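Escalated from tier 1: manganese (II) ion holo job.
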Amino acid sequence: MSLGEFAYANNGNRFLASAPLQAQRFAVAGVPFDGAVTNRPGARFGPQEIRRASLMLCDGLHPLFEVSPMRHMGDAGDMRLPNASPLTEVRAQIQAQAAVLMARHHCVFLGGDHSVTLALLRAAKAQHGPLALVHFDAHCDTWQDHFGEPSGHGTWTYEAIQEGLVSPQHAVQIGLRSSGERAAREYVQDQGGMIFTARQLRGLDGAALQPVVQSIAQRLGQRPCYLTLDIDCLDPAFAPGTGTPEPGGLSSSQVLTLLESLAGLNMVGMDCVEVAPAYDHAELTSNVAATLVWTYLCGQIAKSF
Ligand SMILES: [Mn+2]
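Tier 2 regenerated the structure:
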């Protein structure tokens, strides 16, 4: 049984008519767009590979949360998106489709490059107001232009704060390590938020990560929180299949520890982005992405009992 069991992909708005999805509290949906990348494309194929990799995860109970997501979720398939239109138009269509899904379900979106998150945050903010943000990434994504263009997959965090989608004091970035000018790298911190760089987290896992968890939980409280996970937060040893890999990243167990420990936040949605299967080896990246999504879903479902 897989996350795609209920999939009826690429049939536009017919997903609204699906009893199996409609009745579920949780939904996954693919956002197969990679037209805003800096370097290597391919994340448009992420959703299908993450679904495929979820095959063996979904017929048993999560060993920590003691639940399975399968009776609580459906798959909305992949969004139908324009492929050669301006980014503003692509984002408008993502936002419109996400708004319909978010009104009915607690959603996890499978990217797609990270530019899609701005549209997902717009939909989430319309529903919940200004959001707390947990942002796993190797990159700060707070550049103010995209190599001369106004927007791309490396500007959305800056734009989300500028637009008031995210409350900067309640934004936390985890895993940052890429090169870049200080003003961008530390932008979120300069706006009052928190940054835990990959360097600061070296060697910390399990109980040693709990002070980090405590300070995040204290800062974010129970504000509506959106979680965005760029798979390149992981070291390329764990997740090589991504467009802009950065050595020196987090381990799978560090990210799992954080996801498990932060499940008690007031999460309103998640995305997992930048899985680019063409650069993957042995399905490492799609496997870990599926496991991270599954962990998030199980954590949220366990809370609801
Ligand atoms: Mn990134």
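Residues 137-139, 230, 232, 244, 274 surround manganese (II) ion (CB under 6 Å).
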